[in-house]
Every structure is written in C-alpha cells, then in structure tokens.
Amino acid sequence: MNRILALLLTGVLFTAFSVPVANADNKPQPPKTQSSKAKEVTQAELAQLLVQALGLSRFLPAHPTPQQCFALLMDNSISPANGWNAEAVVTKADLARVIVQALKKQGDIKNPDDPKAWMDYLKGLGIPLEAVGETISHVGPTAEPVAPHVANPKVDPLNKRHVMNPIDETQMGVDMELLVRVLSRSFESKLPPLTQD
Amino acid sequence: MKFAKWFCAGLLAMVFLPNAARAVDSEGLKFLQLNNRVRFEYDDNIYQTKNDKIDSFKILEEVEMLLNFNLENTYVSLRYRPTFTWWQEKYEGKNTEFDNDFDFVLNQTFSPRLSLSIVDTLRYGKAVVASDHGDTVISTNSDFYYNTLNGTVSYLLQPDTRLDVAGRWAGVWYQQSDVAETENFNDYVGGLTLRQQLTAKTAVFAEGRLETIRYEKDVYGDRNSKTYYLGVGADQTFNPKLVGSIDGGYQHKDFTDSSLTSENAPYGEASITFLPSPATRITAGGGYSMYESEAFPYANQNRAQIYGSLAHDLTARISLYLTGSYIDSQYKADQAVKTAYGVRDGSEDAVQVSARATYKVNRSNWLEAGWEFTDLSSGLKTDAGASIRDSYDENRVDVGWKTSF
Asked: What is the ipTM of this complex?
C-alpha cells in the first residue's frame, strides 16, 4: 500500500510538472480561453472558471454541475447582482462584481447598487474587464474557503464521505473534524466486553 | 520509518511544485499559495471515552501548499497539507503526530462535447480506535490511510443534455492489525447520470449507481455487499438569493453472506443555500440512505442526517461561523455477521455543534478562535446486554493564527 501511494504521489507530481510544459510546447501561442475569442461566456462557464481559480475544485465532485458551482460560490459570498443564471451571458457588470467578491474586497465598494462602482474599482486595481479569462487570471486561491455542502449527507455513493475523510475548518468555516465517528471495535469472543450495563 | 517516508514525500512536493511553477511562464497558468496555521487547543476527552476521560492541551502546526495550473483545455490543482501536532498528554509516551492531506484535481476538455475530470484525495493520519491490549480493550490511536479516486467522463448529447459516466474507488486502511481485521475496506462505485437543463434556472437528472464494498479480511465474518441505486433529482434557482437541490430514489442491497438479510429502502437528500444579505450565508440540508456500517459486527446501517450552517461577516474584518449536525443510525441484528456474543437491533445518534470566529488583521494574517462539541449516544448492545461502543461527549476549544504568503 505504501508503494502504491508513493507511486501515485510521484505520478501525480510528474503529471503536474509535465502537463503544463507539454502544453507549452504544443501551443506556442499564449493561451486563450474561449472567452477571449468571439464566443460569449455564460455564467455557468464563469462559475466553473472561478471555482478553479479560487482553488475550490477539491470541494466538489468530479466534473461538477453548474448548480454545484453556484452553491459553492454563494457559500463564499460570490454572486452576481441578480443571482446566478446558468444560461445568462456574462456582462462586464457581472464579471466585475464577482471578481471583487472573489478578491474579498466587496467592503471597499461605496455604492454597491451601482454596477459602475464595481467596474471602476477593478479599473483602479489595474484589472481589465475585456476578456473573462484574462480577468480571472488576476484571482488566486482563496485563503479562507468555505464549503458547508461537504457536510451534506451525500447519499450518492460517487460523492459520499467516508469516516476517514474528516471535514476541516476550511470547508465549513468551523472545525467539524469529529463529525465523522471513527471509534471501532475488534471484538473477540474470549474477551470481556468493555462496558457492562 | 513511515514518518521519514512521508516527510520525504512532503519535501518532494515542496521541491517539485515551485519548480513546476517556474517552468511555465504564461498568463493565468499558475498560482502557488502557501498558508501557515498554528493553533493552541484544549480537548477534554482525547480518547472519546464515557468514563475516565483524559484531557490534553495540544499545539498544531500546519502548512498548506496549493498550486493551480489553468491552461486553455487543462486545469490541474495540487494541494498538500502536512500537520504536526504536539500533545501534552499522550498514551504510551508518544506525544507527537504527523498527518498528511493531499488533494489532486484534473479537468481536461477534449472537445466542446467531451471532457474528463479526475479528483483524488489522500489522507494519512491517526484515529482513535479500540484495540486489544492483553486482557483488556483500550482506546488508543491507530495510523490509517484513506484514499478516494473519482473519475468522470462527460459528453454533451445536446447543448442542454449531458451524460456522465463516472467511477470511484475509495479505501480505508488501518495500520493496527486488530483494527485492520474488521475495518479495512475498499468501496467501488460505477454510475451513469443523464442531466437535462430544462430552463435557465431548472435542471433535472436521472441516475443509476452500482456500489460494491469489500472488506479486506473476513476473519470475523463476511460483511461484503453490493448495492444498486436508481433515482431522479432536480436543481432549482428560486431567486437570486436562494438555490436548492433535491434527489431521491430506491436502493437494493445484497450481502455476500447469504445469512444476512437483503434490504430495499428509499434514499433521498436535499439542500438549500440562502443569502439573506450580502454578509450572511445560510446552508441547510438533510438526507437518508443505507450506508456501510461503522460498528462491527453490523454490515449495514440506515442513516438519517440533518445539518445547518450559518456564516456572517460581522464587519469587514470579523467573520462568524456556526454549524450544527444531527445523525441518527439504525442497525439490525439480522444484518450483523455471526459472532459468539450475538447482537441486538439498536441505534446511535450523534450531535455536533461548532462555532468559529476569525479576525482579519491585514491582507495576509488572521486570528481565530473556535469551539466544538460532540455528543455520541450509542444504544448498540450484545445479546447479553453489554454495550458495543462507548457513548461519549467531547469539547474542544482552540485559538490560532493563520498566515497566507
């Protein structure tokens, strides 16, 4: 088991090292997201990009649905003015608002009901709003991620938590390590029981 | 030796990751974040016992390294978090621990219709277990490994119709032999999900799953099982401040040991997220299903759980978090492997409440304080009336300082 896990760790690290280098070799042009071409970006796509940029992907199942991304971003106080809409095209106002929220700077906005205030704030930080991918590149992993949905019972066996995958404080804001119970017993018939009522 | 291996693994990560980050120089490709967190904690029941509780102060030092690679069609995220703990009180003279958390995410888009996602979580640490110790059974700590590997291939049949083919392998491996004999298991899952976006705010889906649980050893009886799931669900955005999801269906569980009774049962879960104000987030949910047993010799439990969470930004610098959870588990005697002592039908319930406050000193530093309360009431008994598991309650209080580099 140790060898398997050591190989897994080494393989993953090698992949992490080689994939971006390989991509760099095969695609000499600067990377372009779909948004920097003429294609419009939907809020569902924006949510997925944000989840990745903020380092929140580990809290979600493999290939999460837009709804799962929306709920996780809302847990972290990130939401457009009119809420998340999977099929809505991202506007500059939407983008500016969620990026400021992702940077945890929403407290600096003096007039939060004015979309222009959010855009002007980003302009003041030197963050462009012309292309979604370029804007999101200014956002990094959040230091205080919150993901209370991980405590959801998750009856789906593809996503459920086992006893040995405790929830830590970075997922719920609070420390829920003992939410899962790990006490187990190895009972042999020759031994007296531990407690006797 | 194990400590040395994992320490080397951590060093390997610390060498590879910065080098990998420097090897690529293009916008939006990489982001390396380093966090350091130190906490001082008091635990009033470190072995989770009903009587003769042992309390302890402890110091926890954890480092978190998070690296993102975000390219046009590829996204890779790596996270490594080693935690070193020093205990004031420790059984058998050991008062240090070294735990490791490792997370890996890969998202690869092959075409506008086809994509692959892989998520892996690896944990290495210690858990409180009951262990044979001569003529008695005591509570002690056992090393364990836990790994879960998920993979999903998604294909867009139509712009609003998505088919997911997914698989999962998860395993738990205790290092202490007497615990490993009954508690080490592998969980294999395969599943299909067909999802349809009906409107911009409503999506429905149908799902099928097959789950196989295999315990590594059957020294005390075969608890292996196979479960079939069939269900439907929906996701809904009610308004800009409220989203919710619900799904449910039916499970059928068979056991390899023919003396264990198969069971059919409904399953379901629901959750909502509500933002009453920009500074407040409320999450609540609940679920019910059959689940693998956490108490030998039972091979199955029917579990219901509800939880609620509140997060509130009191000011731009102060945030408060409050979470509560309740779990009820029902166990049946005809779903327990045969032992010399025999067991009865029984139930357990667990309550947990947790609170935390953080103060943002500046852009990179936070102070924090937390409290957690856990209460487990176990009604599982042998035929003779002896308790199978200890009920217990536990309080943990901590203060800490977190730095982000």
From this structure: 0.82
